[in-house]
Design brief:
The chain has about 400 residues and is of the alpha/beta class. Helices cover about 35% and strands about 15% of the residues. It contains 13 helices and 14 strands. Strands 1-9-8-5-4-2-3 form a 7-stranded mixed β-sheet, with helices on both faces. A 4-stranded antiparallel β-sheet has the order 10-12-14-13. The protein starts with 16 loop residues before the first helix and ends in an 8-residue tail after the last helix. The relative contact order is 0.16. The mean pLDDT is about 95. Bound molecules: pyridoxal-5'-phosphate (PLP). The site of pyridoxal-5'-phosphate has 15 residues, from helix 3 and helix 4.
Length: about 400
């Protein structure tokens, strides 16, 4: 029997990165602002904006940094309330706290998407919104944009896990005022660490560029246009410098991966849909469907345990682990950074959020990188189905 695949390994970095990295090792040219123009980071920004179809992109040290700079670039006063989904990674409320704002949490449904009734109820008193498309599950962006536009509330998209996802044919991350992506190793494009924000708003990106660490006139080394030049002139010397820049080395590792995105998206979706269909055939597991306008780009699978108690759910995770597959039940793995009750740094009590809590106690997470083969995917599906049977017994045969 083949061994369970290591789902944490990334793909090799494309060979094309090597020549550029060698050149940098020779020259020592690692800082994005040493060269007068066309530094690797600047070229990445140009290429990424082109891939996304946005006017501007700013590469930074992480998606968390991109979220923080987005909030700062919106010029929100201290203690502004920022609405975020209660199901997200701890980095998201952390970026809000870092920007001297207060996270307000809204309920998330069994399908991992923002609960629109609770979202609308909590919009009053909020001055910005971050939508985390958690694990690449897209919340209803038509409804969210309509509610926020009617109130003049800016929307930041946390698209860390949504590179390649579309909504009615539009790229996720380009629907809100600004979209943020991650290049951390567990995301679709891997540079170890890194992030990027995209926007069409010249004033917003000018502020973010300066605050990211474009001191003096280093902003002139970015790809600019007349609107952006005017915005840079407006904000010169008026903003703090947080130094969250990306290094040329990271950009050189990312750029040749951009061409790989379509393949990784297609393969990741096929892998996901194959495992999803198999798990759905088990009476103990249910995989939420995508929303009709959504075309997903998954590199992991989430499913809900059905008819299992807390003890059964723990036993399921242990049985899967014994069969070589690590399953994380979000609300049950100790200190999970995606369980809101572990965000003990929040300045305000987020309330009880029973719906999100119930979801987290049954929602399971398994990585499914695009490079996995069909036999490896079947091995994962077999192990999960068998683990549920270990705990719950054989499902009753039809007709008995
Ligand atoms: C990974 C992730 C982040 C943080 O990205 P970093 O680049 O590690 O800061 C934020 N939000 C979501 C949904 C993520 O998956």
């Amino acid at each position: 029997m083949p061994l369970p695949p290591n789902v944490y390994d990334a793909e090799p970095i494309p060979e094309a990165a090597r020549a550029e990295i060698d050149r940098m090792l020779q020259s020592g040219d690692l800082f994005r602002y040493t060269a007068p123009e066309n530094a690797p980071v600047t070229l990445l920004e140009r290429d990424f904006a082109e891939v996304m179809g946005t006017r501007y992109a700013l590469a930074v040290s992480s998606c968390s940094a991109a979220l923080f700079l987005s909030l700062k670039a919106l010029d929100l006063p201290r203690d502004t309330r920022v609405l975020i989904p209660a199901f997200t990674f701890a980095a998201v409320p952390s970026s809000v706290v870092h920007a001297d704002c207060i996270p307000v949490l809204c309920e998330v449904g069994n399908d991992y998407r923002v609960d629109l009734a609770d979202f609308e109820a909590k919009l009053d008193g909020v001055q910005a919104v971050i939508i985390s498309h958690m694990r690449g599950h897209t919340s209803d962006m038509d409804a969210i944009m309509a509610l926020c536009e009617a109130r003049g509330i800016p929307v930041i998209e946390d698209a860390a896990h949504s590179l390649g996802t579309t909504w009615n044919g539009r790229r996720i991350g380009t629907i809100g005022r600004v979209g943020c992506f991650s290049f951390q190793s567990y995301k679709l494009v891997n540079a170890g660490e890194g992030g990027i924000l995209v926007t069409d708003d010249a004033d917003l990106v000018a502020r973010a560029v300066i605050m990211s660490g474009a001191y003096e006139h280093n902003w002139s080394k970015h790809h600019t246009d007349a609107d952006l030049d005017a915005a840079f002139a407006r904000w010169q010397n008026r903003l703090p410098l947080y130094n969250l820049r990306m290094s040329n080395l990271s950009a050189a590792i990312i750029r040749p991966q951009l061409a790989e995105i379509p393949r990784r998206v297609t393969d990741g979706r096929a892998n996901h849909d194959h495992v999803a269909a198999r798990l759905d055939a088990s009476p103990w597991m249910q995989v939420p469907r995508p929303l009709p306008p959504e075309r997903r780009a998954p590199d992991s699978i989430q499913f809900n345990l059905v008819g299992l108690s807390d003890a059964d759910s723990r036993a399921f995770a242990a049985a899967a682990s014994a069969r070589g597959i690590k399953v994380q039940v979000f609300g049950m793995s100790a200190d999970n950074a995606r369980a809101f009750w572990n965000w003990r740094f929040l300045p305000e009590d987020p309330g009880d959020l029973p719906q999100t809590r119930a979801m987290l106690m049954r929602a399971c997470d398994v990585r499914l990188p695009a490079r996995l083969t069909r036999p490896e995917l079947d091995l994962i599906a077999d192990a999960l189905i068998a683990a549920a049977q270990d705990v719950m017994g054989q499902p009753r045969a039809y007709g008995t």
